Records
---
Amino acid sequence: MKPREIRRGIYCVGAIDWDRRLFDSLIPLPDGTSYNSYLIKGSEKTALIDTVDPTTEQVLENHLNELEVKAIDYLVAHHAEQDHSGSIPRVLERYPKAKVICTPKCKGMLIDLLLIPEDRFITVEDKETISLGDRTLEFVHTPWVHWPETMVTYLKEERILFSCDFFGSHLATTDLYVTDEGQVYEAAKRYYAEIMMPFRTIIQKNLEKVKDYQIDIIAPSHGPMYDKPEFIIKAYHGWAFDEPKNIVVLPYVSMHGSTRKMVAYFVEALAQRGVTVKQFDLTVTDLGKLAIALVDAATVVIGTPTVLAGPHPNAVYAAFLANAIRPNLKFASIIGSYGWGGKTVEQLAAMIPNLKVEILQPVLVKGYPREADFKALDSLAETIAQKHKEHGFA
Ligand code: FEO
């Protein structure tokens, strides 16, 4: 893509990464991603907002060449993670007078991660401004969107909020702005679940903070821009503030069919009681889909056989991830089959200390499930349906 002008003298100069399929060697990217960088020309100074992943730094450089950018005065680094900061050293080399603008915490992290010399920095406090002449940048500290050092930038005259990871989506698209809201909603929710949800209460505070600004465009550093910002702000409000819904998420793994039989019965039992169930086979599921489902769920029930006296490793992985991303769950339980004994329940329960959940009576079955076991599953389904009703989860 060529650099594209958003407003007079303001350009998208980042890179689209169509083929990337994994982020942080962990997060699936079914739709690729982009590393958005923005050039803002003022009457006196020029600023570059974030850079790009180092694998695509030539794209950024080509864009700056095409625009014949002779000088960059300020390089705004919202976030020290390398998908935005990784090309800073190359830009600083090319523009020897450029200064990196960032929070004090970000400065330390950029020195640690990228060995940038100390004299290349200007640190900014919350709400501090810098003039580009006829344009003004206001820096707003928004910690934990995604790391502790993060901030966003408000371009006052054009009312554009440059938000970096905040409001972003891993989505490769030629569209400058959101055109397919359904597609972007899912991609942004996936992003929220994986990146923002662990810090939900701080995200709430940051949402309150940006509410004070009149925003015409949100320009994140991943995915398309929002020319109708209320779409993504409303979505974030729902994800961060709303009570959980009448949903059970059921990640499971089965070795010889006993646990699968229990899962099938249990899903039916919950559905008959009006509970929505989202079932995931952990041997094949996209973990991002599981993370999305956890955003709204009131209850998680893990289905696992007992292997070598404990839960199946796939169930361990799912429990570890759920514990790390801290969804707003209220209840949890475990169902599954064992051959002769083990510590499946104790081990799984000990793995989710971050989840402030009530553990409901697990259903562990010796061998293939029998009539009494199906009754126990009915009982667990009934308990969940009642608990959701009592809490008003709809
Ligand atoms: Fe897009 Fe946290 O980096």
---
Amino acid sequence: MPYTVPKLTDFSESALELAVTELQRAFTEEANAVLEQSKSPRLSLVQKGNLFEEFRNRWQARKSGIATQVNDLWLREAPREGKRAAGQAVNKVRWWLEGQVPEIERNAMVLRSQTPAQRTREERLDITLPGIRRVIGAEHPVIKTMNEIVAVFRNLGYSVEEGPEVETDYYNFEALNFPPNHPARDTQDTLFIVGQEAKPLRDRLLLRTHTSPVQIRTMEKMKPPVRVVCPGKVHRNDAPDATHSPIFHQIEGLAVDTNITFCDLKGTLDHAMKALFGSSVKTRFYPSFFPFTEPSADVQISCIFCGGKGTRDGGPCRNCKASGWIELLGCGMVDPNVYGFVDYDPAKVSGFAFGMGVERIAILKYGVDDIQLFFNGDVRFLEQFG
Ligand code: DAH
């Protein structure tokens, strides 16, 4: 139904305001329809011009346009006590139309004269605006390194699993074969959540100190064969300095299947280190201890700064303390006790696990000398990785 000016019985301010709003709504609707038709390829330019003419007359023609009708029906008909408010409403309508109609005409003319291709260009591009310089973001070097490491393992058929940063004692420690009060827990500098004392130890919350709990969560929901990497943020109660940060990132790996041996572990990690640091890098497995692996090892790579020689520029290599080797990650064969927590049969399956610090690898790959640079948010540092 096209809009018709209503006769009013109520000339209160609020009733008049309502009537004005309704008129404005109707006007906008009709104006939009005219603008839409101004784009139509089916109408000629003359037809489009007539369309606008009609629209303007309907609202503003002196004799019987809507503006005039408003004057007649709202102001003339108003009782004495309503005259003032009615006068104001009528003026408001007139002024408003006076502003709107030429605006609609301008827009209709622009639309009329454009081809559809020009029109979309016009809508996207206002060449009178000052230019906007878009600063291109760069991937953060830690995330970039993390993605690179994950990609190496995805190419070997591993999938990706994630777990929560706020963990329970059970997943962070107990199920990984750190018994309550075992001294191995002391190596983890744990940040505990306050107010957990009322709960049983295994349910108490803490910030995960490593990504190893995701091993347990994965084995709880998947049966072997399992091949996963688990990237994520971890927390330790360490004071920040050039080599320590209370927040850092790790990537955990886990492979469980029938007949997985230490050879598979060595071959996998040797391949991964060569993929990350170049094919001339050598690896060496050094006996170590972790509660959840047996046997356990630390993996060292030949020093990428001195080529494993231990000397550089006629002096001892500072990066490897003249040893020719750099320690990079922990690993081992999954301890059979761990399988007991996730209902795997240690007589049937075997597997290996590993865990590496992402910042540590990024520091070596990019020659960064202070871990804090990753967290300070200094754009001059970060934009170098774009
Ligand atoms: N979770 C250990 C840590 O943060 C690293 C680690 C060592 C992970 C050996 C493993 C592993 O999966 O097998 O110190």
---
Amino acid sequence: MTEFPANSLQCGRYRLVIDGPAFRPLVMGVLNVTPDSFSDGGRFTSLDAAITQAETMIESGVDIIDIGGESTRPGAPPVPVEEELRRVMPVIYALRDAGKPLSIDTRRPEVMREAIEAGADMINDISGFRAEGSLRLLRDSDCALCIMHMQGEPQTMQQSPAYEDVCADVTAFLAQQAAAAVEAGISRQRLCVDPGFGFGKTLAHNLDLLARVGEIQQALGLPLLAGLSRKSMIAKLTGKPDADRTAGSLAAALFAASQGARIVRVHDVAETVDALRVWQAAASHRTHETRKQRPA
Ligand code: 9MG
């Protein structure tokens, strides 16, 4: 298991355990407030529906709620910043006292600023905080930052993704952005990284990255978040593009956790929490038995 300099992630009002004996993989639940979301068909666009969905996630054992007002699926056009704010801000206000860390999925400094002022605990930026001024504005808060890798832009990123060496290129980008965050005055204890499955990547790129999640995390010395839930790679692997992607997503989340991922970002919270509990009980029992059998 990767050893981090500190065993917690500073996440706004919370300190999340990401290493050591008390660690278990954390579940980030997706709360899309976009009318065109690929995974929920826009069912949770109204405030009441979003709150109900968040409450269900909390009952199911979610650790972090990730609120997004801009669709990031391949081909999605950008939304105006005013519209993104109109979608996410009421949800932040409604959920800020719900007892769980709130993450805001945004690339826009304006949205980051308002979200932090309203009580958000984490910023999840699919562009890896490349927007001018974004790192500077987060310096004086204590929110966590999820630095994700994406090649290109959502509208065109799946047209012809290409890398010299996908793992090396992604790791180098994440290292560069983590260094930029530290340079801007942000402590490493507030950072996590994400290889960005499906964001400018072919199936082969995604599988290379998934197989090397542990290596990437170790190289960066930062907790890694894996978002594989309902991605097109799941449909490609099952060969059933229109089928329910839950079972495939669970397998992907478990595999990422087995490789050391500290956080998994998922749509199906209850199922993922159950699957991780069973996997972790079996895995830690096996470790315990192996230690018992070793001669002193
Ligand atoms: C917003 N969003 C959609 N997919 C994602 C993924 O894989 N990781 C992160 N951090 N955010 C994502």
---
Amino acid sequence: MDLVFTQQPNTIFDVMSGLARQTGAINLGQGFPDSDGPEDIRAEAARALMQSSNQYPPMYGLPELRAAIAEHYGRFQGIALDPTAETFVTSGATEALAAAILGLVAPGDEVILIQPLYDAYLPLVLKAGGIPKLVRQTPPEWRIDREALEAACSPKTRYLVFNNPQNPTGRNFSYDELKVVADFCAAHDIVAISDEVWEHVTFDGGAFTSLLAMPGMRERRVKIGSAGKMFSLTGWKIGLVCAAPPLMNAALKAHQFLTFTTPPNLQRAVAYGLGKEESYFSALRNRFQHGRDRLSAGLESIGFAPLASEGTYFLGVDLQQSGIPMTDKDFCLTLVKEFGIASIPFSAFYAADPVTNVVRLCFAKSDETLDNALEKLAKAKAALR
Ligand code: PMP
């Protein structure tokens, strides 16, 4: 019997959210904002629900959404996409990852995974019969360099799963680092499956560059986006896939048997949302940057050592640098059970040789929630040092 999925424990996000519910803790573990996304987008979904068809939409996604995806990335990333040949819609980025990995990776193919890694990558690669080759990043800079990529590479290496901006580190990789990745892929004819769900959540004016826009990557690249992250509607689960036709067709073969399609009313509303002006997206960045600054400054003022966060909803806290002699897992369990805060240990994002001194906190919360959390964290800091 194939136990790839059944052998997996429940994800750490589930475990910590469960403990947060049981104990009434403030949940800075799982990444979701505590207010809902734009009212006009939700109104458009409601309108579509009542006035448009609720029957199966096309497997590729609604034509208006695929046109909106092409328009959006043309406008924001300068990528010219053919909506019918190079875009399709999935039920969340999670399904897009599954479709890309199950559709492309053949048994025996080696797949480079960069740790810390988003939890879906490894089980999907294993399920596809792929052989994971791990590259390890370390704090505080979490840089990717060519030597580490080369060391993980062999003639059997066909794919690299890349995540930028990166969960959980909060890295928005520099152009130079992206070039290292792009050159590496070109040199070894490697296809990059690029998880860019956080593309609009970047800070300090740092531009996000899609790997698809890098020279030499157009034919070697599957780009994955998530409307949930673009519009602070994480429960909507609308994934956006862009890829050259041969890659897209391989992923579609898996998509047709995974979900086949995605609720049409939400697709209509996302098509509307993708057309929003730059000012919407800059306001989004400012809002989450404000949360990052508030949590980061608050943590420093009570003696914790927060790490930099250039994007996503997350920042890391270095326990060692904070003078807390505990592993990340022990700290997270103590924090949720005794001090009323749920967080996520970074070691959960490693398949081997984990970094064990960093925990992830979500700052996509109201000022009030963050301030309440900081009060509890101050108590923890005083007790655990
Ligand atoms: N990839 C990464 C890196 C993520 O952080 C997330 C959500 N936390 C996903 C994929 C899943 O996105 P979705 O909710 O659209 O399935």
